[in-house]
Predict the structure.
Amino acid sequence: MAASDVKLVGAWVSPFVTRPRIALNLKAVEYEFLEEVIGTKSELLLKSNPVYKKIPVLLHRYRPICESLIILEYIDETWTSAPPSSLPTPMTAPLPAFGIFPNLGRIATSWGRDVEAIEQIKTAIEMLEKAFKDCSKGNDFFNGDQIGYLDIALGCHLGWLRALETMHGFKAMDEEKTPGLPGGRRGSWLMRL
């Protein structure tokens, strides 16, 4: 499929845009990346996502698909012949752990002074560590030996988490409390994304 048939509207800095970029690259789908300028909304973005006016938007044969996790599902269902043949989701993963993501924004906007947000992230990371241990069965990914939705959904936020840890002097992941997640002893799964 030609890159002109698949376009991704987004900004490189957005972890939500990183999700479909990882999936498209894993599936070896050629695509054109249409960079949005932060703080502005292009005519294409407004036309493609008129309700929420947010990135990312995947355009496949000019049909828009919005919301990063929905885009992941679409990519997985559309390009089934490309490895990995599917991006499975472990059903035992604790969804409340996704409280990490809004709290990253709270920490950034408070310049690291939001102690409650930092504690909520630490609690969520510990829950993810337990889920990783239960789901991975000693392998590198939440789903065992194959990358899945949860690996991508979490992995795209880790750069921001590491940056905030460095900027504001707190540690959410370490070898003792989170040995399976990135930063821990076995945290190699992110490096494979």
About this structure: The chain has two domains: 3-78, 95-188. Helices lie at 15-26, 43-48, 68-78, 100-109, 115-136, 149-155, 158-168. The beta strands are 6-10, 32-35, 57-60, 63-66.
